[in-house]
Task: structure prediction
Amino acid sequence: MADEKKPGLFGRLFGGKTADEAPPPAEEMVPAVEETPSGLPESPPDERIILRPEAEDEDEVAALAPEVELPREKTGWLARLTRGLSRTSEKLGSGIADLFTKSKFDAATLDELEDLLIQADLGLEAATRITEEVGRQRHERGLDGEGVRRVVAAEVEKILSPVATPLDVNTGAKPFVILVAGVNGSGKTTTIGKLAQKFIADGKSVMLAAGDTFRAAAVEQLAVWGERTGAPVIRKDIGADASGLAYEAVEKARAAGVDILLIDTAGRLQNRAELMQELEKIARVIRKVDADAPHAALLVLDATVGQNALSQVDLFQKTAGITGLVMTKLDGTARGGILVAVAEKFGLPIHFIGVGEGVNDLEPFDAGEFSRALVGLNNA
Ligand SMILES: Nc1nc2c(ncn2[C@@H]2O[C@H](COP(=O)(O)OP(=O)(O)OP(=O)(O)O)[C@@H](O)[C@H]2O)c(=O)[nH]1
Ligand SMILES: [Mg+2]
Result:
């Protein structure tokens, strides 16, 4: 996409040609139940696609759910957000500064700005619109590099504001059931751990369901987060039916009077229809316990996959009824603008973003903070 041939912006503007061991959950919380309450067939283990080696020992499991400091305040988060987005902002921010300190301002300057935005994965449409606005404002009132960054941030914020929607877990639903889906390694289990920590800090009672029933390491990874946060973990034997486990977890959460149930699922590639159907089955089966569940179906997107995030949203939205997004690993890419492209294309709520592996590296998504950090503007 970044390499697409397109007419130069100046041409379009001016008409020219150029252009992470469970608290060892209470005994009764960890039954190894064999039968599936749904009566639905179990999926053979080899249907799952594993993209990374299994973690077998404790050290490896601990590495999957790294320990980090717990206190969190806004200022701490803004510093983490700024640091997390620095790969993107260094490219974008300093790129803009370089462009607009040149004495000459012409069509080529705007084309280069548009290219910078496309290279940061904002998407062609957003890049074009933002560049046009910069061109217009530069023309009207003159803009220096900082001024251009402000215009870019303001335009990005306009795109992001409508989707920066908090995840409302206070709907009266008890438990409020959150199904967490996404491709392999996108950050689902880590995000569940971080969210559990947050909800518990907010005074909620939380239960976790180890719906990735295929890999022992996956269950252990969630169990580590359970232990760390004090949330009980519902688990079953490896190879058990995921929807059966989810069904039981909802029943147990309800019986225990838990506020929030977070259901982990196995990573799946979006082009494997049968795995997508399994996700649909989990949702269908838990509806037998609570007709309104899941109350949220979150798709966890890894920002480092770039444009592929767009096809992931497309497919998970169609087949798994995704209600909102979490974007992780924004610290691992210089193309953090992908969040803007996703917002622009789908308009789905973006609830949280992740900028690191630590428990404090995930916070509710704020359009203004993000937009400023994206171009390296001071967020203080
Ligand atoms: N840098 C960085 N790493 C992250 C972030 N979120 C998660 N990770 C790391 O990404 C890796 C995969 O995270 P998991 O939570 O295991 O991903 P998953 O989606 O549960 O993976 P599967 O269960 O294998 O599908 C781990 O090493 C996490 O620590 C983030 O925001 N930033
Ligand atoms: Mg996982």
Summary: Residues 64, 66, 182, 184-190, 212, 218, 267, 328-329, 331-332, 354-357, 361 surround guanosine-5'-triphosphate (ligand 1) (CB under 6 Å).
